[in-house]
Amino acid sequence: MKLESAEKKILGLLQKDGHLSNARLAEKVGLSESPCFRRVKQMESEGLIKGYAAIVDQRILGLDITAFVQITMKDQTSYDEQQFSACVMADDYIVECYAMSGHYDYLMKVVARNMDHFSEIAMRRILAFPGVKSIESSFNLKEMKNSHCLPAN
């Protein structure tokens, strides 16, 4: 998709503050309100803008642990990927999961209240998912960058 300069500006601004009114957005981009509104609606209908969400501070919610869990499957034929996916999707503490190339099969980002809670998630839930052979966890010690903003160059 080829984006015009105004659309790139709109995306940048909405990624930083999805709560901007159309009037304020149009003013910041340098468009009148109607064309700005049409461009936003077009990007939404084309799926470029997938939705809007509040970014929540996990620590205020009492989720002090962030772990990155590497999953190795028993083998690619002995498990049902749909069942594994359903388990992942059903667990609210698994906030991201990606199928990976390389030494392990999946990478998960997991949040937990504390180490005991993480241990329960890892040992009683993730290890029980269909086809999981082993897991290896690494823990976030310090957040350096956490951005949901994508470059719209």
Features of the shown structure:
single chain; 153 residues; alpha+beta; Arc Repressor Mutant, subunit A; Alpha-Beta Plaits; 2 domains; 4-stranded antiparallel beta sheet; 5 helices; 4 strands; 35% helix; 20% strand; elongated
How would you describe this structure to a colleague?
By secondary structure, the protein is an alpha+beta fold. It folds into two domains: 41 residues, Arc Repressor Mutant, subunit A; 75 residues, Lrp/AsnC effector binding domain/regulation of amino acid metabolism (RAM) domain (Alpha-Beta Plaits). A four-stranded antiparallel β-sheet has the order 2-3-1-4. A hairpin with a 6-residue loop joins β2 and β3. α1 packs across α2 and α2 crosses α3. The radius of gyration is 20 Å and the shape is elongated. The protein starts with a helix and ends in a 14-residue tail after the last strand. The relative contact order is 0.17. The mean pLDDT is 95.
